[in-house]
Write a structure and sequence with these properties.
Layout lengths: L15 H5 L8 H14 L2 H6 L11 H9 L1 E13 L6 E12 L2 E13 L5 E8 L1
Antiparallel strand pairs: 1-2, 2-3, 3-4
């Protein structure tokens, strides 16, 4: 079994890969967070933009995200806590720590992110507050 890079402990083929491929949707805010982390690892910039709340996309630059993902070695994702964001919820919060090195400098991005469902029931990343 090839384990998913998101740290869920599940097989890649059963976790984030089908979500990124559009074969199924993320059922929870945490699942979307995990799939977005995986998208950063894989430089899947189109997925990152598509799952970003359209009302908050101003300033989101494809080229900048691609450059960042290509110069970053991802070392792991830790979900610290979640609030709401379940299959029956409309909004949710996911606090996480993403670790890596970018251009040789280690980092730990500790963020509390807000998510919401769109009219079609898809989870979207709204914004985040760095901790």
């Amino acid at each position: 079994m090839i384990e998913c890079v998101c740290g869920s402990g599940f097989a890649d083929a059963e976790c984030c890969t089908p979500i990124l491929a559009g074969e199924r949707r993320a059922l929870t805010a945490a699942a979307l967070m995990r799939s977005r982390y995986t998208a950063y690892v894989r430089s899947a910039v189109d997925y990152l933009i598509a799952t970003h709340d359209p009302a908050k996309r101003s300033g989101v630059e494809h080229a900048e995200i691609l450059k960042f993902t290509k110069t970053t070695k991802w070392l792991g994702l830790e979900i610290v806590t979640t609030e709401a964001g379940g299959e029956a919820d409309r909004t949710g919060l996911v606090e996480f720590i993403a670790r890596g090195t970018s251009r040789g400098k280690p980092f730990a991005q500790h963020e509390r992110s807000r998510f919401r469902r769109d009219a079609d029931g898809n989870w979207l990343y709204v914004d985040g507050e760095l901790r």
